[in-house]
Amino acid sequence: MSFCKPKIAIIGGGNIGGVLAQLAASRELGDIAVLDIVEDLAKGKCLDIAEAAAAEGFDVKLTGDHKPETILKDADIVIVTAGIARKPGMSRDDLLSINSKIIKEVAENIKKYAPKSYIIVISNPLDAMVTLMKSVTGFPANRVMGQAGVLDSSRFASFIAWELEVSVKDINALVLGGHGDTMVPLIKYANVAGIPVMEMLERKYKSKEKAVQVMDDIVKRTADAGGEVVRLLKTGSAFYSPAASAIAMVESILKDQKRILPTCAFLDGEYGVKGLYVGVPAILGANGVEKVVELTLSDEEQKMFDHSINAVKELIDVLKELKFL
Questions:
Q1: Which residues form the catalytic set?
Q2: What is the signed CA dihedral for 191, 121, 133, 183, rounded to 10 degrees?
């Protein structure tokens, strides 16, 4: 009897790609192949991770190369991190033209060498890059998705936990919408072990007004979290938290966990949106995006969500003007 491990291909051997490979290896999610255009970079990173196998106790194969046909062949899941990272003062929108060219080439290679794969895009501006990926590959919507909501929700949960001085493990928090300044943290659904966060904040400060003010600050910090890291690093952008968030999605798909995770998924009428990739809660399992979970939004949340949708539409319009779509 023979057993075949899943093959996880990672496009981009930079900071995020390296952490993705390390996390996937340490959790033994499958054999890992890393692609980077810089010759030998991916080989070096994979060798470094592989040499830690005995110390960490994992047993998977790691391959690095600059040739797409080597890395992508027979891949079950492809994680795309290719593209330039944001620099201080640069918005995600500024990345659009440069990264669109890169993603188009990556998509063509995936279509050619890994036609049965599931794709998770991390590259920014996220919503536009996932849209472009689906357009070029022609893959069904359930097999093409983006990672942003897991990251944004994790950041939201972390800030809540720090404020309340409780374990982040007990925080449930959800962020919808486009990945950027227009994201929509859902305050009413945020809870600590089932207890509404706003109730916990009111108890802490013994003031509803103060609780609202504190939550407003948390929401603003969540929306600016990526920029905060960029400003502190000065020479790059976040890489550990985006990688960890993508791995959660990979694990749910490969193990058919059917976790409900905030995912940049294709909407076909859900939330009143048709034909756009937007961050929403979705069930991720062996068939990729198996179902979009619809939530009841308040009037204010719906207004914010609509604003986020319009921001995504503007990005897509630019892609069309640039003739990528």
A1: 179
A2: 30
